[in-house]
Write a structure and sequence with these properties.
Blueprint: H1 3-26, H2 29-34, E1 43-45, E2 50-52, H3 53-63, E3 72-82, E4 85-93, E5 99-110, E6 113-125
Parallel strand pairs: 1-6
Antiparallel strand pairs: 1-2, 3-4, 4-5, 5-6
């Protein structure tokens, strides 16, 4: 992969990452669900829960509490691992909440576009 290809893949994945983040802030469940791979090996490991596969993820997301308003991202990076795989890592905070969050996602290019194959969310006292 050339340097230009790596840059373009990073730009594509970043675009989709920020669209997912907007859906998360808007609590747009349909868009959030659509960004996850639709196979049984897809994993989302959250702060207090874990889902494997689209059925568990969609059921959890339907009843999940929306993220608090004012979510702020920092230190967002996109590490391109190949023409069809990238890892996004970011930290996040919420106003008045004494925690620093970390979010990591593995993005894969599939026939229908970029999707999240694995996600991990955690928080530590700040």
């Amino acid at each position: 992969m050339t340097e230009l290809d790596e840059f373009l893949v990073g730009e594509e994945v970043a675009k989709h990452f920020y669209a997912y983040e907007q859906a998360l802030s808007d609590n747009n469940v349909d868009v959030m669900n659509a960004y996850f791979c639709q196979d049984d090996d897809t994993v989302r490991f959250g702060i207090n829960e874990m889902q494997r596969g689209p059925k568990e993820l969609f059921e959890w997301r339907a009843g999940a509490t929306p993220v608090p308003k004012g979510r702020t991202l920092a230190q967002t990076t996109v590490k391109v691992l190949g023409s069809d795989v990238a890892v996004v890592s970011t930290t996040f905070t919420y106003p008045g909440r004494p925690f620093l969050g970390r979010q990591s996602q593995i993005w894969v290019r599939q026939e229908n576009g970029w999707s999240i194959a694995h996600a991990h969310v955690s928080e530590i006292p700040n």
